[in-house]
Design brief:
416 residues, mainly beta, 4-stranded antiparallel beta sheet
Length: 416
């Protein structure tokens, strides 16, 4: 417990240095949250298990429950303005509101639905288990479309009334990708080279898009989905949602083996992905941004996170644009120190990097960095204050950098 609290204390120092990263918001529920959608920087909705619907009108500072009229698990929410919206979920449930969620009207039934997407106030699609695709052209009545597959379809995304994509698949089979250019009358299948279900898809125009899924998969297309190639990412077990604010800046969330609450970010279109500090252990299910800096992520046990600076960390902001030629761990400065000192290092290659503090007996005092980082030069700060409200005693401490196969340690002195 002491290690965890000390790690949190070190993380708080990074937060203070940056004014914000991903900040938890009180959802008022412990039900798991599955999807988040905002129509602007203030008004948004979250849905989840046991019929949970939450709405905010102040950018996510406070969340108010809405009456769904169901105990079914709700999987996806989509609004076209502050009044008209739809939710789909377990048992083929479809909910619609025309007054911002004050009242929800239920319809549908059958196979579970996992995703809903509207291109206008009348035209939308929903997808779900058993290869199910349904479409509405008046916002009320839904007609089935032929997907040509029986695998579970997890997310649908359209850029106009004709062109859209659906992703899904089975656990151990190649991910399924479907595309239409005539509003879903016909769907063509493209099989990715990845193994495992694809959970999320996002396009910024008719050519450039990404999909994410199991086993940490992220794939990209630059030709509208005819060809997909795998991108390099960090160690993640499952990614549940992907979202881009531009052709370069994007986010993916999910869970990682042994490290839950995974948030990945790219600033170069997905060529490199690096981990951001989520600060929670719960799996994240959905991520949504209203602009380049302001976004939300939701997940298990009522988790809601918000960022107003793109989720950047202290070490990310101090990235050197010119990659170094070799590894190096610098001597901390000042040394001796009280109560804070800065530690800098460099890595010539992208890799999973950790920077940890130990006492002379080998006990871990704090973990300052534990994430995938691009090649570059970094600097972070360590404080002698522990998370339990005590000060570390004067003496010698060891800090250790691990970057890929490179390992180096140095001594520092706390003097009070």
């Amino acid at each position: 417990m002491q290690k965890i609290l000390l790690l949190i204390a070190a993380s708080l120092i990074l937060v203070q240095a940056n004014q914000a990263q991903w900040i938890p918001r009180n959802s008022g529920t412990t039900n798991s949250l599955t999807d988040v959608y905002f129509i602007n920087g203030s008004i948004g909705w979250v849905v989840g298990t046991f019929g949970t619907i939450l709405k905010t009108g102040d950018g996510g500072t406070t969340w108010n429950p809405q009456i769904s009229g169901t105990m079914n698990h709700l999987a996806s929410v989509h609004f076209i303005d502050e009044n008209a919206g739809w939710i789909v979920g377990e048992g083929g449930q479809i909910l619609k509101t025309t007054n911002g969620g004050e009242n929800w009207v239920s319809s549908g039934g059958g196979y579970s639905l996992y995703s809903v997407f509207f291109i206008s106030d009348s035209t939308g699609w929903a997808v779900g288990s058993g290869g199910r695709i349904i479409k509405t052209t008046n916002g009320n009545y839904w007609s089935p479309q032929s997907s040509g597959t029986l695998v579970d379809l997890m997310e649908v995304y359209f850029i106009d009334e004709n062109t859209g994509w659906v992703v899904g698949g089975q656990i151990y089979d190649p991910g399924t990708i479907l595309k239409t250019t005539n509003g879903g009358t016909d769907w063509t299948s493209t099989t990715s080279d990845t193994i495992g279900r694809l959970n999320s898809v996002f396009f910024i125009d008719e050519n450039i898009g990404w999909a994410a899924g199991q086993y940490g998969t992220i794939i990209k297309t630059a030709d509208g989905g005819s060809d997909w190639f795998t991108q390099s990412i960090s160690q993640a077990a499952s990614l549940e949602s992907i979202f881009f604010t531009s052709s370069n800046i994007g986010y993916a969330v999910g869970q990682a083996a042994g490290i839950y609450g995974k948030i990945l970010k790219t600033t170069n279109g997905g060529t490199d992905w690096f981990t951001q500090i989520a600060g929670i252990i719960n799996t994240l299910s959905s991520v949504f941004f209203t602009d380049e800096l302001t976004g939300w992520a939701v997940g298990y046990q009522g988790t809601i996170l918000k960022t107003t600076n793109g989720g950047v960390t202290f070490v990310e902001e101090n990235k050197n644009e010119i990659n170094p030629d070799d590894y190096n761990l610098a001597q901390n400065y000042p040394n001796p120190f009280n109560p804070t000192t800065k530690i800098s290092w460099q890595s010539p290659v992208s890799s999973w990097q950790t920077l940890k503090i130990y006492d002379v007996l080998g006990n871990e005092v704090a973990a300052l960095v534990d994430e995938y980082l691009p090649a570059g030069t970094y600097e972070t700060e360590f404080s002698s204050h522990s998370g339990e409200g005590r000060n570390l005693s004067s003496g010698i401490y060891i800090y250790k950098l691990t970057a890929g196969f490179f390992v180096e340690t140095k001594k520092m002195i706390l003097m009070k």
